[in-house]
Amino acid sequence: MKRYRDSLFTFIKNMMRARKGRPWALAVLLTFVLLDLCSEWPSNVPRPLFLNTLTDALPDTFGSARQLLFDHYQRRFPRIPTMQPVTIVEIDDKTLESFGQWPWPRNRLAALIDAIDAKKPLAIGIDVYMPEPDQTSPGKVADDLPPSAAALATQLRALPSHERILATSLRASPSILGAAAFDHATSTTSTDMLSAPVLVHGADPLPSMHSFNYVLASLPELQGAARGQAMLNVAQEQGTVRRIPLVMALGDKLVPSLPIEVLRVATGSPAVEVYADALGVRAVGVADVQVPTQPDGDIWLHFASIRSTEQRYVSASDVLRGTVDADRIHNKLILVGLTGTGLTDMRTTALGELVPGIEIQAQVIEAIFEGRFLQRPPWLIWVEMGFIVAFGLLIIWYVPRGETRFAVFMYTVPKASAIIGLTLNLVTLSICFMVFKYFGFLVDAASIFIILSAVMGSFFSISLLDASTQHGTHTVDAKGREAFDGPGNAPGEESAR
């Protein structure tokens, strides 16, 4: 067993030292580039089966490092809002104390929508879905009365249901109801919902998009009364929201997200437009606005700190009492959402802040108004790969050349490779931060750092291997070449460094 282990060690050592370590460094470069590409494989290119196996067997080091870096970009340069097109009417603790616990009877929600609509907003997006009948409707209450209260039951059944009251309010206002897409069926999901048409310009984008088979939506009576229906889904990666779909697929049908549907209703546009090519979705548009997207229809949201957006919130209790300044609602895009304790769907943003889900929808609308989008187009991935490969090959060709001044520095200065690697990567990282700040491009400096450091480290590992196996003495001549006089080295043999 020991002889087998020694033979294997000798084989690996000889392989690493062959041709001054260049083949070994090249293998490291190509392997790491392939792993990096696997973590962000283009959606329009079929992934080979062996890569799926490789990806499943190894941790997604590159993907995790990339996301942390992109988060750090945002934390260093968060978006500073320059306008406030959205007002959030929050059903908060104050509202619940005044008007009762959630869920409310639908006639009370209708009263809130009427109060908002009276101040003439451009659109009202409701971050609530209601798939089941209201059990407090007069007819439902009548069904539970004893036979002795037959007269009262008859009177109650003559009254309109709470769904009918809410539908009347929805029909009279520029309202949009939210829905949630699911991969699996439940007792309250369906396979379709009413939604505005989505016009596709170019190639079919369905193969590259987020696709779902089921949706949790409001009752058909309510859907038919509202001006629009929209998905509330956001994309979460490791518990953090970074990307938000503007459009997604429900079966073979395209449906819009809440922010884009709110803009459609506000502008009176008949449809949402999707611009696609062979790579997938390029942009999603409403009226004269086009929002550049990732191929799957997502956008990378440039988050603003919740501290800079707190003024957008208005308590629903103040709206119901009529004490809110009309300017907070007039000609605004209104989002109605839950923020009360125990009710809200809290999400972690790229800034590390825990915010209500409705806040993320508001920030998407705000970013569209400002025209400030983060971008990671497919061509940027290939530019990064080209840079990594080119610079890696330059390292592989240049570092082992013993006659250069660079080699002399590498061999004579302690920790020279660490110093050079750190300097180069700091320069690269600084450039990437500036590109993010001024152009909004998400450049993956993390993968550049990891891969090029691995290539540099491959030569350093060869040096450590030599140091652990050589028992003779070595010297460095004036040209930076090393000569050994000891076991395993022929006289005058040049070290494979």
Question: What is the tally of helical segments?
Answer: 17
Largest sheet: 7 strands, mixed
The mean pLDDT is 86
Estimate nothing, just give the exact number of structural domains: 2
Describe the protein.
Strand 18 and strand 19 (354-356) form a beta hairpin. Strands 1, 2, 3, 6, 7, 16 and 17 form a seven-stranded mixed sheet that branches. Strands 8, 9, 15, 18 and 19 form a five-stranded mixed sheet that branches. A four-stranded mixed sheet has the order 4-12-13-14, covered by helices on one side. It is an alpha/beta fold and 497 residues long. The protein is built from 17 helices and 21 strands. The two termini are 30 Å apart. Helix 2 (22-38) runs antiparallel to helix 14 (378-398), helix 4 crosses helix 17 and helix 14 runs parallel beside helix 17 (445-469). Residues 471-497 have low confidence and may be disordered. It has two domains: 2-77 and 377-485, no CATH class; 86-370, no CATH class.
Question: Which terms summarize this structure?
Answer:
497 residues, 2 domains, 7-stranded mixed sheet, 5-stranded mixed sheet, 43% helix
Short description:
The protein has 497 residues and is α/β, with parallel strands linked by helices.
Write the layout of secondary structure elements.
Elements: H1 2-17, H2 22-38, H3 49-57, H4 61-76, E1 86-91, H5 93-99, H6 106-117, E2 123-126, H7 138-143, H8 150-157, H9 162-172, E3 175-182, E4 198-202, E5 211-212, E6 214-216, H10 220-225, E7 228-231, E8 235-237, E9 240-245, E10 247-250, E11 253-256, H11 258-267, E12 272-277, E13 280-286, E14 289-292, E15 298-300, E16 313-315, H12 316-321, E17 333-338, E18 346-349, E19 354-356, H13 357-370, H14 378-398, H15 405-412, H16 416-439, H17 445-469, E20 473-476, E21 482-485
Helix pairs in contact: 2-14, 2-17, 4-17, 6-9, 11-13, 14-17, 16-17
